[in-house]
Design goal:
Layout lengths: L5 H8 L9 H7 L4 E3 L1 H7 L9 E3 L3 H10 L3 E6 L4 E6 L2 E7 L1 E6 L4 E5 L3 H6 L9 E2 L5 E2 L4 H7 L8 H7 L2 H13 L6 H10 L8 H12 L4 H10 L2 H5 L6 H8 L7 H8 L10 H7 L4 H11 L11 H10 L2 H15 L5 H12 L9 H6 L6 H16 L6 H12 L3
Parallel strand pairs: 2-5
Antiparallel strand pairs: 1-2, 1-8, 3-4, 4-5, 6-7, 8-9
Helix pairs in contact: 7-9, 8-10, 8-11, 10-14, 13-18, 14-16, 15-16, 18-19
């Protein structure tokens, strides 16, 4: 991970970030504002930057007034937390007033405004997230974030236990950031503090826990990260009764896509451990209805998938289940059967992606034209015709289906 000098970062890397042009307007209104947090971290290590977040010593109402004076549209997204969002050329920039904590309750903090940059940086979670960058390219690193970033070290600002007691969600964030930026042995102080305070996570909002867990499941170094979570006792708190991590290891050995839900499905197979399956874990984590439906679809035994399916069989399963679900299910079956890469399964997915979605070509009006009276009998004939169509790999068109049905009806 190569780190560039701050001035070079601003001149070269920052100029390529979407939304860079709007920064000049922000700095015109708030000349003391600095880029903060993740964008500074990722600029320094050459990773893609998605959001340009800034901090400013101006109170939020004053920041809003100044930004509006230079023509920015300002949305008061979180005035009580000191945050406004400036929209310039359709690009959003989150700008937060420098803060210090007055009190915390293990998740939420009461804050007061400050003009002390180091005091604001001190309330951030990790040293690699506590750096800031001004418009001149000057990097401000109060806690050794550059050295930690260079060494692949994820370390809490200040004492790990104190930071966790302020906000227990930082335990989960430690694992997520370690997966993405960590190398070598994890920070011992952090792991000891998490192991001692892990039960605090049980009091967190399930929705926030689910959000962090899904990010971890979609990220790099997954087995190592979950293993570390298991060592600290965190995994048992957050994902009780999960299947052995060796099941997940078989999936990852297949070079699966980084889709968190089908990885979660491996940890909670149908029936699960202690009765905890995909349906139960989806409800426990309060996932969206769409996510729960996807987990349930993964768990269904039908339609059956195999690397040896020909195109007719593949069209039949595609008619029965959504393509995106089938593609993800194929990785689950491959993991169960082989637990390694396989060209046959790769070829199956390639063919599945290339097939057109089968659509049964008959409707009730076609049967009425053939003399079938609307009602239960029509439903039975439609079902029989569809079975005939499926047996032939969903290939017969509407004409062929009507001709076949007409022959079945002719003796009547």
């Amino acid at each position: 991970m190569a780190l560039s000098p701050a001035s070079e970062v601003l001149r070269e890397a920052l100029s390529t970030v979407p939304g860079y042009a709007g920064l000049s307007r922000i700095w015109e209104a708030l000349p003391q504002a600095r880029l903060v947090g993740g964008c500074v971290r990722d600029l320094l290590c050459g990773r893609e930057v998605h959001d340009l977040d800034l901090a400013s010593p101006f109170p939020p109402e004053e920041a809003q007034r100044r930004l509006e004076q230079v023509g920015a549209k300002v949305i008061p997204t979180g005035l009580e937390h000191g945050t406004v969002t400036a929209v310039i050329n359709h690009h959003p920039y989150e700008i937060t007033t420098l803060r210090r904590d007055v009190s915390t309750d293990g998740r939420h903090a009461v804050v007061a405004w400050t003009d002390d940059w180091q005091e604001d940086a001190q309330r951030r979670d990790f040293t690699i997230n506590a750096m800031s960058l001004d418009q001149e390219g000057q990097l401000y690193d109060y806690f050794g974030g550059v050295d930690d970033l260079r060494a692949g070290r994820v370390r809490f600002v200040g004492q790990a236990a104190q930071r966790i007691e302020e906000d227990a969600l930082r335990c989960l964030r430690f694992f997520r950031f370690f997966a993405r930026y960590g190398r070598g042995q994890p920070d011992e102080e952090a792991c000891q503090a998490i192991a001692r305070l892990k039960d605090m996570m049980a009091r967190l909002s399930v929705e926030r826990v689910a959000m962090e867990l899904l990010k971890i499941l979609s990220g790099p170094q997954l087995l190592r990260t979950l293993g570390l979570m298991e060592e600290t006792g965190s995994l048992a708190v957050l994902l009780p009764h999960h299947a052995p991590l060796s099941d997940l290891e078989r999936l990852l050995a297949c070079d699966d896509p980084s889709e968190p839900l089908h990885r979660l499905a491996v940890l909670y197979p149908p029936g699960g451990v202690g009765g905890q399956g995909v349906a139960e874990i989806g409800a426990y984590l309060k996932l969206s209805n769409e996510s729960r439906a996807m987990l349930t679809a993964f768990a269904k035994p039908e339609p059956k998938l195999a690397a040896t399916l020909d195109d007719d069989a593949l069209r039949r399963v595609l008619f029965q289940q959504d393509r995106s679900i089938l593609l993800l299910r194929s990785w689950l079956v491959q993991a169960q059967e082989l637990g390694r890469p396989d060209s046959g399964w790769d070829e199956l997915r390639h063919r599945l992606e290339g097939l057109e979605q089968p659509v049964f070509p008959l409707a009730g009006r076609d049967l009425i034209a053939l003399g079938v009276t609307p009602g239960p009998e029509m439903g039975q004939w439609l079902k029989q015709t569809q079975l005939w169509w499926l047996e032939r790999g969903c290939r017969p068109d509407a004409v062929a289906c009507r001709e076949w049905l007409g022959r079945q009806l002719s003796p009547r």
